[in-house]
């Protein structure tokens, strides 16, 4: 048993989710088992984006590894909760708690996790003890940059794409597959269903065996004057039936429910940009490449109000863990001050995102 144990960081609110511009209230708590002197108790609030990836390049047969890395700092504040120079007290055996208040910047981007890059907000507490190793702990929390869909009236409008796809190229090109793909609107929040209609006019002599509608997250990572684009599927709807050759098939009012996911970027981060599209892909029988039709959408944090009313859609906004993750904390490994962490809270951290639930 050490002289100091159970070092932890607690928040005043039960769910550690804060909007950009909010004030974080909480406390650093610990137990002293035997009379101990302490030099200092400090708390550091750090909000940071880190992008990191590696590429293998072979110019002129000279194979080498190139590392791309960049970072942005949105919050970096240190609070001295106790300093012996101001109050040289002996900490007797007891439980102790030190309150803190931290103001988040108004332009703080939303928390985000990916294997290539992340936007992570941490609190790091450290107790410095004379002639002994200190005690440290950290705790991650979620920041949400509000995206009110109602500020963009065009997101109320339906979206549609009509396209012709061919199974082969000229001169042996097939008859076309004509696909009509439409969405009820262009703006959503997690928890809502994306309502879509699809019409497939298959004029070929091949059956269409597989069809999917997917919500796809596209991320652009920027470092060293280079951009790396990555995509991942947020949710997928697979059609149970096929489209026979020389036939037409319709699907109306089908629904793809959006799981908890990061909202569309509002450009507060210059090195991580997040956008979304709804992708309809299909493939015909035989050795043919899949065909795709995509419609960009926006995912926000405040749902569209019902038309001709002042109320939001029926339901309440709660917070649920991200569909993706957890990922290792890249920020922790870049901050040498806290390399001696003894107790690590929330090792498997996932951000909490707004999620629309039924009343």
UniProtKB/TrEMBL annotation:
Coiled-coil regions, chain positions? none
Q: Name one Pfam family in it.
A: Arrestin_C
Q: Which residues form the Arrestin C-terminal-like domain?
A: 173-304
Q: Read off the InterPro entries from this record.
A: Arrestin-like_C (IPR014752), Arrestin-like_N (IPR011021), Arrestin_C-like (IPR011022), Arrestin_domain-protein (IPR050357), Ig_E-set (IPR014756)
Set out the biological process GO terms recorded for this chain's protein.
Answer: protein transport
Its GO CC terms are: cytoplasm
What Gene3D superfamilies does the entry give?
2.60.40.640
Protein family according to the UniProt entry: Belongs to the arrestin family.
Report the protein name in the record. Arrestin domain-containing 3-like
Lineage, top ranks: Eukaryota, Metazoa, Spiralia, Gnathifera, Rotifera
């Amino acid at each position: 048993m050490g002289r100091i144990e159970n070092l932890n960081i607690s928040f005043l609110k039960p769910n550690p989710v804060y909007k950009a511009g909010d004030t974080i209230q909480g406390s650093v708590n610990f137990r002293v088992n035997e009379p101990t002197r302490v030099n200092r108790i400090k708390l550091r609030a750090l909000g940071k984006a880190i992008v990191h990836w590696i590429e293998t390049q072979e110019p002129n047969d000279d194979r080498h590894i190139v590392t791309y890395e960049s970072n942005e700092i949105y919050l970096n504040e240190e609070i001295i909760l106790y300093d012996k120079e101001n109050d040289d007290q002996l900490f007797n055996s007891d439980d102790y708690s030190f309150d803190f208040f931290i103001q988040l910047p108004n332009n703080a981007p939303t928390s985000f996790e990916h294997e290539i890059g992340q936007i992570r907000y941490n609190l790091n507490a450290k107790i410095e003890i004379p002639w002994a190793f200190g005690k440290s702990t950290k705790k991650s929390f979620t920041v949400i940059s509000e995206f009110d869909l109602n500020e963009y009236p065009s997101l109320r409008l339906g979206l549609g794409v009509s396209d012709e796809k061919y199974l082969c190229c000229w001169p042996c090109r097939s008859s076309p597959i004509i696909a009509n793909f439409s969405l009820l609107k262009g703006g959503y929040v997690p928890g809502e269903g994306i309502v879509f209609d699809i019409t497939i006019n298959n004029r070929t002599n091949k059956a269409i065996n597989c069809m999917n509608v997917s919500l796809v997250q596209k991320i652009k990572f920027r470092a060293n004057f280079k951009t790396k684009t990555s995509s991942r599927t947020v949710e997928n709807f697979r059609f149970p039936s096929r489209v026979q050759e020389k036939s037409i098939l319709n699907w109306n009012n089908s629904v793809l429910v959006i799981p908890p996911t990061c909202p569309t970027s509002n450009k507060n981060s210059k090195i991580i940009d997040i956008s979304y599209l709804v992708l309809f892909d299909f493939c015909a029988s035989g050795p043919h490449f899949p065909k795709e039709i995509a419609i960009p959408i926006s995912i926000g944090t405040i749902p569209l109000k019902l038309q001709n009313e002042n109320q939001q859609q029926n339901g309440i906004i709660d917070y649920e863990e991200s569909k993706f993750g957890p990922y290792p904390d890249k920020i922790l490994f870049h901050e040498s001050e806290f390399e001696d962490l003894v107790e690590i809270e929330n090792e498997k951290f996932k951000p909490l995102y707004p999620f629309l639930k039924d009343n």
